[in-house]
Amino acid sequence: xxxxxxxxxxxxxxxxxxxxxxxxxxxxxxxxxxxxxxxxxxxxxxxxxxxxxxxxxxxxxxxxxxxxxxxxxxxxxxxxxxxxxxxxxxxxxxxxxxxxxxxxxxxxxxxxxxxxxxxxxxxxxxxxxxxxxxxxxxxxxxxxxxxxxxxxxxxxxxxxxxxxxxxxxxxxxxxxxxxxxxxxxxxxxxxxxxxxxxxxxxxxxxxxxxxxxxxxxxxxxxxxxxxxxxxxxxxxxxxxxxxxxxxxxxxxxxxxxxxxxxxxxxxxxxxxxxxxxxxxxxxxx
Length: 285
Prior knowledge:
The protein is α+β, with helices and mostly antiparallel strands. It has helices at residues 2-8, 12-32, 44-54, 56-77, 84-119, 130-147, 161-168, 170-187, 211-231, 251-267, and strands at residues 151-159, 193-198, 201-207, 237-245, 273-277.
């Protein structure tokens, strides 16, 4: 597994270099054996490797290199003596075979990436879903515990959202949720994460952000939300509760504490922001 992870972490130039070296190695073995062994299939390894890691264009380049190397090796060993027409035909067959493999492998990888993205994306809003949020939160919690850097998690809940669904219907309710998602996404940094956990409940994750910094950002988020919801004419507000930590044990513990802070907001009037340190939810500000 560690070796596999090392291959997965290779940068683009390293992947290309390995692909080229793989083609050259197969060509050298092909030449060394004098063409007595059919090594055509071995070229599929570097072609597939590069196509899987880097996509269609680099895969096509390695496919062309493989076809050229295969033909060159054959000409050096004297195994291809059937004349120019046969030489061209064999080259085309080799090239088509390598190209088909490159395109199929690259397309398969793109399909898996799309499926992986869809599995981690909320279909209605386009935000991260609960699965993606917990994966990212788990990584951030581990990083926070290791480096003792602050991490803030916030719960965003819509006030009176059920009344909107009841009065205007589910279609308008969905539009409200999409509007909220756009507002959240535009109000946070690229390093932060916005996710829809369930229904009208959203979460925000702020790495490297302390309590005071988070409150400033969240007040801006709340202002943006209320501005967009009011402009659309929807009788909805939002409440936000956040918790900041440098020693969280798990995303679930942070979620529970942020939910407790959010409950305090709801209990004391809604449409506001409250921020707390981990383990101190009742002393939120």
